[in-house]
Task: structure prediction
Amino acid sequence: MDLTLLVDNTTFTDRYLTAEPGLSILVEDEDVTVLFDLGYSDLFLKNAVKLGKDLSCLDFLVLSHSHLDHTWGLDPFIRYLTERTIEGLAVKHPKLVAHPEVFSSVSVDGLAEIGSLVTKEKAARHMALTLTKTPVNLSSRLVFLGEIPRENLFEGQTPIGMKQTLEGPVPDLILDDSALAYKSDRGLVIITGCSHAGICNIVSHARKVCGDQRIADVIGGFHLLNPSTSQMAGTLDYFRQITPLALHACHCTDLDSKVALAGVAPLKDTGVGLSLHFDPRP
Result:
């Protein structure tokens, strides 16, 4: 499996790529090609061109959760597919996989909308939707984890903004937050968006779903932005115990949290342009 970071808050030094506060990761396996999140704008498309990556033949588009820094690239992606069709160019409409609440409207702190700008109905005109709370196998080695159980009391317990429901607005615990797990020969590779469900909850769920206790790498946002003392301590204890081979914490992970994580696990440099390869589990 080859993984390429198309969008992140930072870029690698001396690389002529562009960053934005968002996340988009391209996953290329022998069986499938998956785009995980689309960032805030059309930047994922521009960086893909610079990196020589073709997004016209994706098998799956996976959305980690509804927030603007992960879904607002959906409108440019639909325009991209439409323009290729108009020009008579080869195009494949991927299947969209996400939690059923991923298209819900969310407001916070005077911002009328931080959720997806594209509705479920409009998205369904361009690609088949698989909206599920249960895990889905995208291939024999790659799994969408579905809704993440909130087992740890130190994470995933604080709502952000208000979600609109048929009964009216309710505090948003971001139950739509999910992730991917890849079964490599060295253990699981966890690919996460913002980890609102809790990065430790996500990893624990992946281990149960995939039947593998080994963690080769965790890549994505850890949602450690000025975390509470209990959240940071709980997270450090967890990673100290499971001994991952590597961590690529990015996006919504602040510097102090990265420094602390580096004390318990091999923390690696991360930014737009990151390219990683993992051999499949036999």
The chain is about 25% helix and 25% strand.
